[in-house]
Design brief:
There is one protein chain. By secondary structure, the chain is α/β, with parallel strands linked by helices. It is built from 13 helices and 19 strands. Helix 12 runs parallel beside helix 13.
């Protein structure tokens, strides 16, 4: 077998990154040289997102940039994998002839034969069963050595009316407890201190495989391992029961940071979105969480401009945000994705109106964030140092309230050397554009 230099580029979410890391390990084990730099590579593998219009545009821009490298003789072949390939498998090669081969979301494990085929002059198209994929196996972890993701399930059964994910990723399927704990032990053994548990919906973990919710039991076992922080991403509100809340509240390693995608608050909009639960149930859940978990930081995603959202429904959403005081919120404009029920619904909102509503929500959330950060002034917080920031002239890190690449950072000064991956205590002395500043508390 020839030894090729293969570059991997990952777009989109952390779940996509895990798939990229799996492909990298397969390529490495096949004897290829794996790199992150496409210039000079024999093959570039672009793992794409195809969730909404902005993600599709980003993927196409990356394809065109890699195609230019090919045209300049600085890259050999181009393989495109992931959600964009899966979504447009019939059109991608025709519309973008610069692409030499494609792999869908059911074929990440076919990366080695795809590389072989494209280097032999073929035009491979691999599209496996998206409902039956191999999720176990080695990864080349690309995150900093102190932080890693653990993907506990693939796919989604929620079928929200606006979402294309189930059509691209297949039905919900949990990984076994044994495989997850084996992988977690390996990560802990490598020195990972922050484990981020991810899936499209982690609250449903185990319901397909064990016929009951098993996230709480999995978390208890993960807390026995040598991690300092365990962070949870994407807990759906209708499955967040008292037993799971008790685990989160009682386990010191589990960060008091919960990512709950709510999307909207108006009952009629929620029903048309095929979301389970009502405004009253959401408010009651948030109140329970705040009472049971002191210091809790909530993150959510909200969509403005959904079909049927008039001024009254939008104002209700704004009122909810003011009332709930959610510390972290991603605000998105509704994207009518072809193939989803919401794209064909009556009452589509003018895109300019929707964009203005997004701006208003972002401004509102910015004020909430500023008030939250000001409430932290004078306190001492545990911070995971991520290294020295030359631009800021000080160290940078994250508190429990800051998920990587999503939330803010804590910038702090220290008299001595603070290696990346070290946990330190920082007294918060200031705020700056959504971030915090402070100074290390010397022992």
């Amino acid at each position: 077998m020839s030894t090729y230099k293969v570059a991997f580029i990952s777009l989109g979410c952390a779940k996509n990154l895990v798939n990229t890391e799996q492909m990298m390990a397969l390529a490495r084990d096949a004897g290829y040289t794996v790199t992150a730099e496409p210039e000079g590579a024999d093959v570039a593998v672009l793992n794409t997102c195809g969730f909404i219009e902005s993600a599709k545009s980003e993927a196409i821009d990356n394809i065109l940039a890699l195609a230019q490298l090919k045209a300049d003789g600085r890259l050999g072949k181009l393989l495109v994998a992931g959600c964009l390939s899966q979504r447009y498998q019939g059109e991608l090669l025709e519309e973008l002839p610069e692409v030499d081969g494609i792999l869908g979301t059911g074929s990440y494990t076919d990366i080695v034969p795809a590389i072989q085929a494209v280097m032999e002059g073929d035009e491979p198209t691999f599209f496996g069963d998206i409902d039956h994929t191999i999720e176990d196996g080695s990864r080349m972890v690309t995150t900093p050595p102190y932080t890693a993701y653990l993907k506990i399930a693939e796919g989604c059964d929620n079928r929200c009316a606006y979402c294309i994910i189930p059509y691209l990723r297949g039905r919900y399927r949990s990984r076994t407890m044994e495989s997850l704990l084996d992988e977690a032990r390996e990560l802990a053994g490598r020195g990972v201190k922050e484990l981020i548990v991810i899936a499209q919906d982690i609250t449903r973990y185990g319901t397909d495989l064990y016929h009951k919710r098993m996230l709480g039991e999995l978390l208890r076992e993960l807390c026995r391992l040598d991690f300092h922080w365990i962070r949870l991403h994407y807990l759906y509100p209708d499955e967040l029961d008292d037993a799971l809340i008790e685990v989160i509240a009682s386990e010191p390693k589990i960060l008091k940071y919960i990512d709950i995608p709510l999307q909207h608050i108006n009952d009629r909009i929620l029903k048309s979105m095929n979301r389970r639960g009502t405004k009253a149930e959401i408010l009651a859940l948030l109140e329970k969480l705040r009472a049971r978990i002191p210091g809790l930081v909530l993150r959510t995603s909200l969509i403005a401009g959904l079909p049927g959202e008039g001024e009254a429904e939008f104002e209700e959403l704004c009122g909810f945000l003011r009332q709930a005081r959610i510390e972290r919120a991603g605000i998105f404009q509704f994207s009518p994705e072809e193939g989803t029920p919401a794209a064909a619904m009556d009452g589509q909102v003018d895109p300019d109106v929707a964009a203005r509503r997004v701006e208003l929500l972002v401004d509102l959330e910015s004020r909430i964030l500023d008030e939250y950060n000001e409430s932290r002034l004078g306190g001492v917080e545990e911070v995971l140092c991520e290294g020295f920031d030359a631009d800021m002239g000080c160290y940078a890190g994250r508190s429990y309230a800051d998920s990587p690449d999503i939330d803010g950072r804590v910038y702090f000064t220290a008299a001595g050397l603070v290696p990346a991956g070290t946990f330190v205590h920082v007294r918060i002395t200031g705020t700056e554009d959504g971030d915090l500043t402070g100074e290390i508390e010397e022992d």
